[in-house]
Amino acid sequence: MLLVVIALGFAGSGLAQAVQIGDIDVLATVPATPGFPEGVVAHGSSVFVSGPARFGTAGTGPSAIQVFDRRTGTLKQTILVTGENLAFEHALSNMAWGGAGRLFALSTQLGLIYFTKQGLDYAQVGYGDPVPDLPICPFSGSCSPTAFDMPPIVNDVVFDPQGYAYVTDSLQATIWRYAPGGGAAQIWFQSAQFEGGGPIPFGANGIRLNRERTHVYVAISSSAANPAQGTIYRLPLVDQPTEADLAVIHTYIAGEMPDQLAFDSVGNLYVSLALSNQISVLAANGTETVRYASAPGDAIPLDNPAGIAFDARTRSLLIVNHALLSGDPNHFAVLRMFVDDPGTQLFDPDSSETEFGE
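-> structure tokens emitted (358 positions)
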């Protein structure tokens, strides 16, 4: 592996030291309450982490976004979500930067919401309505192409250059789309291939645009036909893609459960593998070139890695430990893996705005 000498503050030293591609250290530990973190966004001087992403939250406290110092990993602030009915299931999954000072997050109860910095605090604003619970097909109206009637579970979100937001629905085999300005979600694409199976029947999960902004990539974590199979699919970024447009990029066959996605600056696709506790890297042609795992002796090992995002400043990949199956609060963390690449930006920054979180 490439050996690099850099001053990244890896392992908290702040001193120049040798690190190798694939080396993992701990940027931040995430509080046990609400715990079970999933989403991650790096912007300005901060790293934002959302949660909880789990079932069994009825009767517990509100969902939250933790704000960490991007350099030191120090917890700076906790943003509590308002408006949830805490007597019922509530969760916060993934996030996206939407420009104009807005940090978007997906709430299972509230839909697509966003936060803006107001002085020392953050203001919460509703944006996209909660997605509907679809009946299974055939049905005269909108329906879900699944064999069983399942509730909606919004999972990940990405914006295109025109301001449309694309949202995966893990249990209804659907990608939703919100028009610029929000409002009601519309069905953008559905496929029975997106239906999950097995004990964790999540289908559509992570979603990203390629660096050319011409295609949408989506991770299907498991398959109804073969629960051990997870697939990365590609669709053209058009108004109405069809089943014929759906292309297989890569298939995982050993129960790895592909979760979240991130593109590097040259078009390689990084994939978090939630059950095998690894990070997979796919070349543009879909070939897997490498898998990264924790090394013996790592302070906190990869534990159901979920949200991933590039930190251009440290040329590293930020990885959120979901720790959903172990439930070990000592593993709730943001890990940082050196990859020597700044990643592909998910948005076009407005040069007139101040950096979010500073």
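The longest strand covers residues 111-118.
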